[in-house]
DNA sequence: CATGAATGAGGGTTCATTCAT
DNA sequence: GATGAATGAACCCTCATTCAT
């Protein structure tokens, strides 16, 4: 009821909060601009001065938010990783056979790799990073590979996926997915959902166990169902 | 027949010939060294001085064979393109339905992308090139995309491939194939042939038309066969 | 006796006084921290940000007490100079022959150069200062040189010091004393008093005129001998 | 006799030799210019661009001879060390009692510290160097200290030097000697020899053991007296 | 008073490329 | 044809200092 109440209550903290938020927003703006330019032009062909210019600040101002150009890159990878990690974790903890989860992984991957931070893993070169960060990024990449392999192996076990070399199959799928980063921006007519669905089916149909007569009735249904979404 | 004969025959030009050959061999050596180092370390992280060093020559000596670092890169792309072009042309001119040719394209692509020059298209960044060369490289890339799309479309027409979006399907396949360049060197246990065969089948089975009863007898056999290997 | 008494007495001016004192104390704290870090790391390798950090304040806060980094340095020299000036003046005004006063100067110098501000003259580089301040500092240094020379000359006159080049002798002594700043912190086992006494004797014994007839015969010989070399 | 003979004889080597000499001369010129400017202005206040300017070359040209600014500094120390090392070694291996050798060390030190490279140890700050080089320089400095201490201790043993704390005495002498670097350039009227001789005598007379019985009675008294203070 | 943010002025280093020999 | 040397253009990063809040 009393107007200043809220003000009084939050008074001691507000400045801090506001400051921090403003700061975080700026830091974020730097990252968003940087990732766009890195993706567009390439990391090493993007001087920080240009990034700063487009943000209407000066080059050293960036150093209020990051310790080095490399740290910006590292942070971009980290943000990408958070997305992958969250999505993959959710899928892994959910119910479903190997094939289903594999398709979910594909859908998730498509949704992430079509975002700026998601694209970093596919389009930026982790050799620009120092030893430690590079190791971290590569660990993430291996973790994604593994996520796919695990579901493929699970699918083979539970009969939802035909026998194959899980490692190679995972490489093929991830390769196809990473490739999206190369053409997505330029082929604007397709929605992310459409791409996700198409890849989820196209990349797995070939892996799905061939419909035995018994299964031949069920599989088409599943396919039809998933196609609806 | 006699060993020196050839020498005698070419005698007047021999110096020229020899010179030119020696020159070409050196030029070639530069390219081979350069591509390896570019692939290993990245183009812009590979100073020409290091390339020269490993060849036991000096940096300016490189300028006897190439006008610029960029020209080296350009030439590498060109050599890669020659391979793709030759293989693709041969396949396109051959007999067979869409599915067959698609598989042949995949096999050819695997064989080329596992070579140094073939890897350039997938692992080097054409944005390092100047306007003209970049345009040329991108035309090549589009041409490969098109090659795959055409066979997919042909396969859809001739019934060997199930209905799908040829552009997306081609992107998926090429993405999977380009991905090979990311892991091939590190996963040494697999032969190129094995990879080629696995990818040719794995990436197409899902695209192949659903086995009619007539076909359903044949397809499993093929699958079984490939599994044995 | 009662705690608040002092507070009550100064009551009307207390805020001002307190303020000023608080301010001076802070200014002082800055100087004490700065001198320690300048001596430890070197002036130009000590960013103000680090000084501020260790004081748990922020960099621009320093500018409330000093107009520039250079002013801090200048002030440090000034504080050192006050000490030298006070001690030297006291000695010069006291009684005693040249040798005695020379020894007193040495003792005083040791006591001052083993303090932080005293060390500034020996360990910091006055070329970091601007024209005016640098001139001032150099005037101080010359003044110290002169103080030593004057007593040496006086000693020569009054017979307490043997004939020698006063300028060179003063340089030697001051050099030896300044050198203390290079090792004092690291050779913790010696008390300032011990060092002062040792230097006062060691650096002058050779300069002192032979006190007795017995000596007057021996000393020239030694000198003659060593001169032969 | 034949003019070109020499030319022919040295022919195959001359280019190499000439090249190498020219290169070494230039490298040397860089070092000589650098040391002068470093001593004059201070290391960190001397941009490489200015050094290059005075040599009529451009900044990056310096990188043909040195890998970094720090390496130049390091090399300067090394050249200084060579001089000290050579002189000290010669003296240590020679004949003579402690006092004699101590005086020789002093003379040598004066001769070296009045040269540009010799001055580096006294006037440049080894904290500008990286870990390794700094350690090396400090080892050198300790070695010089030790050289003096050893002779003082030897002199005490052989009776040529009166009992005293060798460490402190060495510090005092080296301090006095290093101080020369602070005033030598500016006090041009004195020859190096004169300074060397004056310091050799002035700094040791006080340390020399009283030569005669006559003195042995007087000296303790003086010491006792001054100790009362 | 104190703070976060921003700036301007450099400085060291790298590297493709050119040139005289 | 090859070399050593040199250059110019960038680029990253640091830091003292200022300013609005």
Would you give an account of this structure?
The structure is a homotetramer of 229-residue chains. Chain A has 229 residues and is an all-alpha fold. Chain A contains ten helices and no strands. In chain A, helix 2 crosses helix 6 (116-123), helix 4 packs parallel to helix 7 (131-158) and helix 7 crosses helix 8. Chain A is elongated, with a radius of gyration of 22 Å. Chain A starts with a helix and ends with a helix. Mean pLDDT of chain A is 85; it is low at 1-12 and 207-229. Chains in contact: A-B, C-D. At the C-D interface, helix 8, helix 9 and helix 10 of C face helix 8, helix 9 and helix 10 of D. The structure holds a DNA duplex (21 and 21 nucleotides).
Task: Report a brief summary of the structure.
Four copies of one chain form a homotetramer. With 229 residues, chain A is mainly α.
Distance between the termini of chain A: 48 Å
Structural Rg of chain A: 22 Å
State which percent range the strand residues of chain A make up. Answer: under 5%
**Would you count the extended β strands of chain A for me?**
0
Structural class of chain A: mainly alpha
Number of discrete helical segments of chain A: 10
């Amino acid at each position: 009821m009393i107007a200043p109440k809220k003000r009084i209550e939050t008074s001691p903290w507000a400045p801090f909060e506001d400051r921090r938020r403003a700061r975080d927003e700026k830091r974020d703006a730097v990252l968003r601009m940087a990732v766009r330019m890195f993706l567009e032009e390439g990391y090493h062909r993007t001087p920080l001065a240009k990034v700063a210019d487009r943000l209407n600040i000066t080059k050293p101002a960036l150093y209020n938010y990051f310790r080095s150009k490399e740290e910006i890159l590292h942070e971009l990878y980290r943000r990408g990783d958070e997305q992958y990690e969250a999505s993959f974790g959710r899928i892994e903890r959910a119910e479903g056979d190997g094939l289903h989860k594999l398709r979910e992984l594909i859908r998730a991957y498509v949704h992430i790799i079509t975002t700026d931070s998601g694209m970093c893993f596919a389009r930026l070169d982790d050799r620009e990073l120092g030893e430690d960060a590079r190791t971290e990024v590569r660990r993430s990449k291996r973790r994604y590979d593994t996520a796919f392999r695990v579901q493929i192996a699970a699918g083979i076990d539970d009969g939802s996926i035909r026998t194959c070399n899980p490692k190679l199959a995972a490489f093929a799928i991830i390769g196809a997915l990473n490739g999206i980063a190369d053409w997505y921006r330029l082929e604007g007519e397709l929605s992310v959902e459409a791409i996700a669905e198409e890849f989820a089916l196209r990349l797995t149909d070939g892996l799905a166990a061939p419909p035995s007569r018994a299964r031949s009735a069920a599989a088409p249904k599943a396919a039809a169902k998933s196609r609806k979404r």
